[in-house]
Every structure is written in C-alpha cells, then in structure tokens.
Amino acid sequence: QVEDNKGRTPSDYMSNPGELKVPTRKISDKKGSGGSKNSSGSRKRDKVRVPKQRVPPKRNGVNITSANIRIWIHDQDLPRLEQVVWEGEGHRLLKETSNHTKVRQFLNLVPRMMTKIREVHQAAVNGDLETLEAKVDQPEILTAKDHNGLNPLHKAACLGHRTIVEWVLSQKQAPISVQDRKGRTPLHYAAVSENYPDIYEMLVNSGADEKHTDMYGKTAENYHQKPGDLDTSVVHERPTAPRSGGGTLDIMGPSRNASNANSKQPSRVPSRNG
User: Is 179 in a helix, a strand, or coil?
Assistant: First the structure.
C-alpha cells in the first residue's frame, strides 16, 4: 500500500481520522484581494482616493453654450444675452440673428459693446483715468471681462495704477470679488504688483477676501511669496472686438437690482442714437 511521509497508509487514517490534519488556505489582505473583513464578517472595500479635479469658477451662474444662447434668443432673454457680452463671450453673438425686433436691435449693438469694453480695458492698462471716466457710463462695464476672464480692476491692480484702482473702487458694484477664468480676484494680481502692499491693502480695506483661493488652491499671499507662479502677461491682452465695432455708444444703463433680476429687459433699451 501507498504510505505518506510518516509511513502511514489510508487504512491507518480510516482507523484514526483525528490524526489527519487538513491544511486551510489563508486569505490575504494585501492590495487587490478585495479588502479585509470587518466585525460583522462582511468584506470591506478598500477606499480609492480620487484626485481632486481643478474646476474653473462658474461665470456668475450663467452657463454660456451655443445651445443656451439660441434658447435665450428664442425667449427674448435680453439680460442673459447681455451677460454673455460682459463675460467676454460677445463674439458668440456676432453671427446670431432673430425675428424679434428687440433682440435684433440688441444683437446689432454687440459689436459696439465689444469695442467699448476694449476701450475701457485699454484705459485701465494705460492708467488713463480721463478716458476711463469718459467711457464708463454704466457700472456693469467695469465687470466686463476679456477672454481670460480679467476685468479692468484685475489689470489696474496688477500694473500698480493706484488712481485707476481708487476710482474703480469708488464706483457702484466695484468688481472686487469678480474672478477670472482661473478663479483669481484682483487681489491675486495686486499681490504681485510693484505697488505692493499699497494697492493690496486698498483692496482689502474695500472688502477683498484674503483667504479666497483660485483653482490651484492658492491665495493672493501665496502669489506674493512666489510671484513667478502667476503669469502677469495676460493683463496686456486686449478684449476681442470686430473692426467695424464703431465708436462709443451709451449702450446699457443702470444695473439690474433684485426686483427686476428676472426681467427679460436689458439694463436699458438698446438705441442707435448716442
């Protein structure tokens, strides 16, 4: 008969089954095994860490897409269409048309609005207060952005134009907390200005949030410590505008307040007369 390494035959184990030890398989808790068991006996799943994605800030709650623009045109939602221009997306409206008279009038004014926004930005970059005062005839144009999401205050703060910053802060609805495409406020740009901490403190005293972080998790002070991390060349980029945009035009009026925020009328009824 066949014997094992202990010299025992199957008959021996049949007579004394207790002497046969059956090995058990040990379940590994190593990575890939599905995790260990908890006190109830059910298997726990290993937690998977998902890296946090960098998400750019929302544009004042306005989701600007081609589909939404067509909806707003159909609904004659002029405030929404106006916001498209202030958000630096006016070029999306240049080829649009409408059968509605008011919408068509507004769309015809978009090139001039874009030209005026570019002039306001250029005045802020040049530190030209006289031109800025002449061009700004409604508070919303100070919130108007270029394609990077910067408004005039972002640029003036970065370039150290104290008089421009002071004047903008004195206006209604000064865009102190308005963010660019990367979540940066004017304070982030003031932190790398040659006039730091003068303009920086001016913004803080006007209500700027020093704890606000951009999409990279950095505060304004972080950029002051490492100014090379912020690309300041963007402040010299001009907003886009068609060549046929024309001259200045009193295009929009006073800001909408909470009582008429849901109105489908623009800040001011568009007019071709300056």
Answer: coil
3-state DSSP assignment of residue 43: strand
- pLDDT of 268 reads 44
Burial of residue 99 (CB within 10 Å: 0-12, 13-18, 19+) is exposed
pTM value is 0.69
Q: What is the C-alpha separation between 250 and 113, in angstroms, rounded?
A: 9
Rounded distance between C-alpha atoms, residue 90 and residue 21, angstroms = 81
Looking at per-residue pLDDT, the higher value among 183 and 47 belongs to 183
Q: Of the candidates 175, 194, 198, 197, which has an alpha carbon nearest to the alpha carbon of residue 185?
A: 175
For the segment 3-14, the average pLDDT, to the nearest whole number, is 68
CA distance 160 to 189: 10
Q: Looking at residue 228, what is its pLDDT?
A: 96
In the chain, where does the domain assigned CATH 1.25.40.20 lie? 152-236
Domain 152-236: CATH architecture, name and number where available: Alpha Horseshoe (1.25)
| Omega before residue 197 within 30° of 0, cis | yes
Q: DSSP string covering 217-258, please?
A: S--HHHHHH-GGGS-GGGGGPPPP--GGG-S------SPP-G
Task: Give the per-residue pLDDT at 266.
Answer: 54
